[in-house]
Write a structure and sequence with these properties.
alpha+beta, four-stranded mixed sheet, elongated
Length: 175
């Protein structure tokens, strides 16, 4: 069944996109939540008339997302957590905790669902976390868990040196 999206749906498309979905999905989810309308001739004609307004809103959203990316990109956020022996956490650091830390420390409100964590962080140290801002716009934030900024900088230097040594060893082996 072809439908016209009225808003952004993750994995499906954005406002004004005409997509093909299962009839049950459309009738039981999209239509009741007013996320889409059926792609009839009349609705398609209205969509063509609204394309200019949709493009303007899309441009504003992209500009806002890029500005937010500039604010967040490369920043560090500290999350306090109890750390046991050998750097293992008691519990874990979740996306909601990271979103709260970004709000408190960087004064930027983000939804916890936008934090792309994959699985909870269970080890102390510096972790790179992506934040999905809008469609393909993502910002990478360094999350410091159970360590302070100086320890994280030293740890990052040690990791960089180890990567350099591995790269040099690989080059020597290739020769």
């Amino acid at each position: 069944m072809k439908v016209i999206l009225l808003g952004e749906i993750k994995g499906k498309g954005g406002e004004g996109d005409v997509i093909d979905v299962a009839q049950g999905y459309a009738e039981n989810y999209l239509f009741p939540k007013k996320l889409a309308v059926a792609a009839t001739k009349g609705n398609l004609k209205q969509l063509e008339e609204r394309r200019n307004n949709i493009a303007k809103r899309e441009a504003v959203r992209m500009a806002d997302a890029n500005a937010l990316k500039e604010t967040l990109e490369g920043k560090q956020v500290t999350v306090d957590a109890k750390v046991g022996d050998e750097g293992i956490l008691f519990g874990s650091v979740t996306a909601a905790m990271i979103a709260d830390a970004v709000k408190d420390q960087l004064n930027v409100e983000i939804d916890r669902k936008r934090v792309e964590l994959g699985k909870p962080i269970k080890v102390a140290g510096a972790h790179q976390v992506d934040i999905s801002l809008y469609r393909e716009v993502r910002a990478t934030v360094t999350v410091l868990v159970g360590v302070d900024a100086e320890e994280a900088a030293e740890e990052a230097e040690v990791e960089a040196e180890a990567e350099t040594e591995v790269a040099e060893a690989t080059e020597e082996a290739a020769e």
